[in-house]
What does this fold into?
Amino acid sequence: MEYIIIDIETNGMSALGNRVTAICCKTHYGGVEMSFTSQDEKSLLYNFWNWVDQINKSHNGVCFVGYNVYAFDLKFIHIRSMKYDLEVPVFSKDNYIDLRYELLYYEKFAKGSLGDYASFIGIAGKNGDGLKAIVLWDECRISELVEYCMNDVKITHALFERCIRAKIVKELKK
It folds into this structure.
């Protein structure tokens, strides 16, 4: 089993009216960093799912890890993939860890952002917010968009490792 730490950027909050602009990932055990971005959203999503499929096959499973990954990132990616009739792997609830929900004990309206937790545990904080990502996309500053997204992945990974050590989340067998 390999963990895929994931974050996405979009040009808005609605999967029905907006699009995925970047997907950044890092494997927990392998440390492989990947980013997917393209003006052609279908190709971005296809390449992402192809990469996930390769990781899934080579590691006998994957588990997505993110901050608000279930309620936003994965939902957004699945809906946008459906638009293009892309085949999406079927995963169960055992295939994701949403650190937001783990840390906030599944209270939907509880406060606490990724940046808040980064500051709280003393790791380098976020370098902007989602609105910054939209501006970077609109201005075609793609390398900066990927850097912004990957920074969130690195923060999420550090938070994930802290949660494992604190036994807030259980590490699955490698």
